Structures are given as C-alpha cells and as structure tokens.
Amino acid sequence: MPRPILATIHPNALQHNLKRNRAAAPEAKVWAVVKANAYGHGIEHAYEGLRSADGFALLDMEEAQRVRQLGWRGPILLLEGVFEPRDLELCSRLDLWHTVHCDEQIDMLAAHKTNVGHRVFLKMNSGMNRLGFTPAQYRSAWSRLNALPQVDDISLITHFSDADADKGIAAQMASFAQATQDLPGERTLGNSAATLRHPDAVAASDWIRPGISVYGSAPDYPERTAVDWDLQPGMTLSSKIIAIQSINTGDSIGYGSRFVATTPMRIGVVACGYADGYPRVAPTDTPVLVNGVRTRLVGRVSMDMLTVDLTPLPKAGMGSEVTLWGRASNGAVLGIDEIAHASGTVGYELMCALSPRVPVRVEAE
C-alpha cells in the first residue's frame, strides 16, 4: 500500500471562506488570490471551491493558462504585471488584466502593437516599498498610461504593509486617497487582513483580494484565530501511526536526543517529516491530533517521520489517524496557524511548503 500520508482539499470550506470575505465587503467584487499554486492547495484542486469569485488574481502566465484551461472566462489579474514585452501578447490572447508598477512596464506597453486595448491596474507604493509608483509619481504615471492607445482602462491598486498589525492602514489609506483624488477607475485595496479588520478599506474598494483567509488561516494570528473569523481549514494534512515505542524514564527520542522522557511513555511514530512539508523546526509540544484527540509532538522532526506522545490515548496504536493540521475524521480541528506559530513562522509558509511527494485528494462535496 502507499505510504499513509495525504493532503485533503476541502472545496466546501474554500467556498465558505470566500463567502465570509464577501460578507465583509458586500458592495465589492472579489478576487480569489490563487498565486503560489493556490497557496499550495493546487489551482486545479481549489478551483471548484473558488469559482464563485468574480475574478482570479495570480502571478505568472503558466498559472493564468491553467485557470483558463479549467474553463474560467472571467477576469484574471496578474499581480506583478508582465516581465518582458512578449508577455503582452499572451495577455491579449488570454484576456488578462495586469498590474503596472514601474516605468519599464509602461515603456513595454507603449512599444506594443495591438488592436485590443489592455486593462491595467496602476500600482501605488503607499508605504510597502516593494512595487509601485510613489504618491508623487503616481499621477504622472497615470497620465502616461492614459495617453496610450494600447491601454483601454486603468484601475488603481495598492497594498498594505501593516493591515494585520497595530500600525494599521490609516497612513497608507490617506496617502492613496490624496494621490488618487478625482482619478477615474476602480479601486482594489483590501487584502485578507484589511478586508476583515478595516471596514474603511472595504468601503473604499471596488474589489477586494483575499488570499490567506480564503484558505482558512487567520491573517492576524495569534491576535485572532480562524475560528474568531469564522474560517474553515481548506487543507488537511493527515497520516497514520506506523510504529509504537514504549520508552522508560531517561530514554531519549530521535536525532540529537532533544527529548528525554521524565516518566515511562508510549510513543507513536508518524509517517510525516520535513520532506513532506512539515516544519523541521517544530518543537516538542507542538499540537497534533491522534484519532481526533489533541496530543503533542515530542523530539526532533526528521525527514520522513515524527514522533508523538500517546499518553492521553491508551487505545491508539498502529494505523491510528494522525492530523498534522486541518480537520480530523471526528470533526476536531487543528488550525494550521497553531503549528506555524509554534514553529516561528506563518500558515502561508506551511501551505506553500507542501511537498510534491504528498498525495492530494479533493474531498467530495
């Protein structure tokens, strides 16, 4: 039989999370952000759960082609725009909308020969300091684009650096509002954190573009959890116990003898390791579900295996279900944010780190 590890994608949960974001911004249209292969869930696996969105936002042409091949005929937005002039031909062929964040991309459009005008999203650097025109440059960039026959419509976009933190979005909102005053075009402002935490951003948005919240992770964990935001896990990573070890006081477990038992224990060996995408740095006491009951990781995570404490589960044994994150068979939920936080990272990274060697199935609706 195959090795007992599996990632299960939950389309109903994705659909629920999308509705939750839409409810926070009932007047706005919704981009479902599916960059990074739908945050590790797989575009093809997530599509049915997300097709009620008004559009899909992503990064590269290959992903855009995959969305079109799935039958999507609505808007697709390239969040980083084009990378070289020939990309504009594919934008025309696939009917892609694309971000413009630098003078070089405007130059590419000016030199582009086309009979079909492009729908572009002019990006402002309102404080993130990654992509976009500064507020002082923004109107000049808009005027250049507006003068091009290759451009059919200009929308306005920015991205918040601190929507999930105490600093908030007020300064960036004010900067964006001042620089875009009286400019025509739809606005897209709200990522997950802004959509859920800042109704002022939602009110100013014609489009919201939730990412992480669509997949069931809280954008501001640990201040708030997925449960607080009424989000459901889009992915479950599960395995089984493949061996049992009974150890004595003073015995150690795993590489480096990082865990030493202070009492006799039953240890379950689980078919999951860092080569599957589980974080190697996850420490002892990171939560795990065995048969839907919460227990803990003990010892160091290795390439193919990890070990769990079966003290609270005297009946657990070979073949017992292990939920690394997501929803157990009995309905118990272990949020991916808990594992990420224990490991010093964020749920985004764990989702995107799922290994290609892990089989994936889509839960039947």
Please explain how this structure is put together.
The chain has 365 residues and is an alpha/beta fold. The protein has 2 domains: 11-215, TIM Barrel (Alpha-Beta Barrel); 235-362, Lyase, Ornithine Decarboxylase, Chain A, domain 1 (Beta Barrel). It has 12 helices and 19 strands. It has helices spanning 11-24, 35-39, 43-50, 61-69, 87-94, 103-111, 135-146, 170-179, 192-197, 199-203, 336-342, 347-352; strands at residues 6-9, 29-33, 55-58, 76-78, 97-100, 118-124, 151-158, 187-190, 207-208, 235-247, 252-253, 259-260, 265-270, 287-290, 293-298, 306-309, 321-327, 333-334, 360-362. The mean pLDDT is 96.
Keywords:
single chain; 365 residues; alpha/beta; TIM Barrel; 8-stranded parallel barrel; 6-stranded antiparallel beta barrel; 19 strands; elongated
Q: What's the helix and strand layout?
A:
Layout: E1 6-9, H1 11-24, E2 29-33, H2 35-39, H3 43-50, E3 55-58, H4 61-69, E4 76-78, H5 87-94, E5 97-100, H6 103-111, E6 118-124, H7 135-146, E7 151-158, H8 170-179, E8 187-190, H9 192-197, H10 199-203, E9 207-208, E10 235-247, E11 252-253, E12 259-260, E13 265-270, E14 287-290, E15 293-298, E16 306-309, E17 321-327, E18 333-334, H11 336-342, H12 347-352, E19 360-362
Parallel strand pairs: 1-19, 2-3, 2-9, 3-4, 4-5, 5-6, 6-7, 7-8, 8-9
Antiparallel strand pairs: 1-10, 10-13, 10-17, 11-12, 13-16, 14-15, 14-17, 15-16, 17-18
